[in-house]
Amino acid sequence: MPVDRLLPTPESEDLLSLVTEIARDELKPRASADEEAEKFPRGLFALMGKSGLLGLPYSERWGGAEQPYEVYLQALEEIAGAWMSVGVGLSVHTMSCFALAHYGTEEQQDRWLPDMLGGSLLGAYALSETQAGSDAAALSTRARLSEDEYVVNGTKAWITHAGVADFYTTMVRTSEDGGHGISCLLVDSSTPGLSAAPRERKMGLTGSPTAQMLFEDARVPADRLIGGEGAGLKIALSSLSSGRLGIAACAVGLAQAALDEAVEYAKGRTQFGRPIADFQGMEFLLADMAATVESARATYLDAARRRDCGLDFQRQSSIAKLVATDGAMKVTTDAVQVLGGAGYTKDFPVERYMREAKVPQIFEGTNQIQRMVIARSLKNA
Q1: Which of 114, 197, 203, 349 falls between 20 and 30 A from 226, CA-CA?
Q2: SS3 letters for 287-349?
């Protein structure tokens, strides 16, 4: 069922209509088969780039659409509802462009952003390491300046688009000064000494490649340093505040897709002479699912509108990510229950939705970390 959205302008309404059409015609028909085959749909990112969807929140100067975050996130929700791997990929790409768009020099922005936003280049975000996930300041991948190049050594873990991205927004250690010793490099995929490990074998989002990225004396030109030495942790945390809203929107899209499948099945499945949707137990279950989806949507939109107004939104971003991803896990699990035995088979997509709903509770900061961020904000208010 189409979502009844409140959009700020006629232009944004036209944009969402385009996104809905692409999601319906290009993404959803391929999703189940490509996920089953663990096939990454690179061509769809080029299509979205040509359609203007890879740069929705960024400046028109570099080929972006300069849309407010409340519009970008609703577009992202539509895409994730059709195919979660593509929605997450778009969110990651948008976050990968954040450092350059907000902290790069004009020369750097003019040089690289047009291709990044136009679909020629696909991004990845390389922050996490095996021993530095939630504790980002503990990362150990090192970059040593040698004349006009940084020589990088270390391993990044859990990198979405590993091995298929064209650039990696990478946080590295340039000094031993704790969190102040972290810097940001925009690393080209063709960099000598950079390679991807074999893909992780995951329970969900199997169409989206995730792997370690290996830096072995990788030589990165010094002009690819973003924001100056020591600015990396600040850039990373700022990127994550916006990126968490992207994951919240993706989670809502996934939950909405599960709700739609559950409602359609309940209306068509007959037991004891009437549709199971007419039984009060089922009505209450579907109602709770709908309330969860719409509450999560309202939560991420509130955070996005605060961001668009230039207000602090870090706590609201963490709340949105927490509420939306926990909600998606519940709604997708309930959708499997609505379909009963059919929901446990691969003949219907709800079992895939349930598997895909787990990882948003983990990446972009686990939901336990979100609770810490929220509590710290309350104590410091």
Answers
A1: 197
A2: HHHHHHHHHHHHHHHHHHHHHHCCCCCHHHHHHHHHHHHHHHHHHHHHHHHHHHHHHHCCCCC
Q: How far apart are CA 242 and CA 26, in angstroms?
A: 27
| Gyration radius of the chain over CA positions | 21
- Please give the Cα distance from 238 to 175 (Å, whole number): 21
Q: What is the 3-state secondary structure (H, E, C) of 241-277?
A: HHHHHHHHHHHHHHHHHHHHHHHHHHHHCEECCEEHH
What is residue 232's three-state secondary structure? helix
Round to the nearest angstrom and report the end-to-end CA distance of the chain. 41
Q: Which two tokens stand for residue 280?
A: 């009060």
The count of other CB atoms within 10 Å of the CB of residue 9 is 11
How far apart, in whole angstroms, are the C-alpha atoms of residue 30 and residue 28? 5
The single residue of 26, 35, 70, 364 carrying the catalytic annotation is 364
pLDDT for res 137: 85
Beta-carbon neighbour count of residue 377 at 10 Å? 15
- List the chain residues with pLDDT less than 50: none
Confidence (pLDDT) at 1? 74
Could you give the CA distance from residue 129 to residue 170 in angstroms, rounded to a whole number? Answer: 11
> Which phi and psi (to 5°) does residue 8 adopt?
-80, -25
* Cβ–Cβ < 8 Å for 214, 195: yes
Which residues have a Cβ under 8 Å from the Cβ of 217 and sit 6 or more positions away? 151, 152, 153, 193
Whether 364 is catalytic? yes
pTM for this entry: 0.97
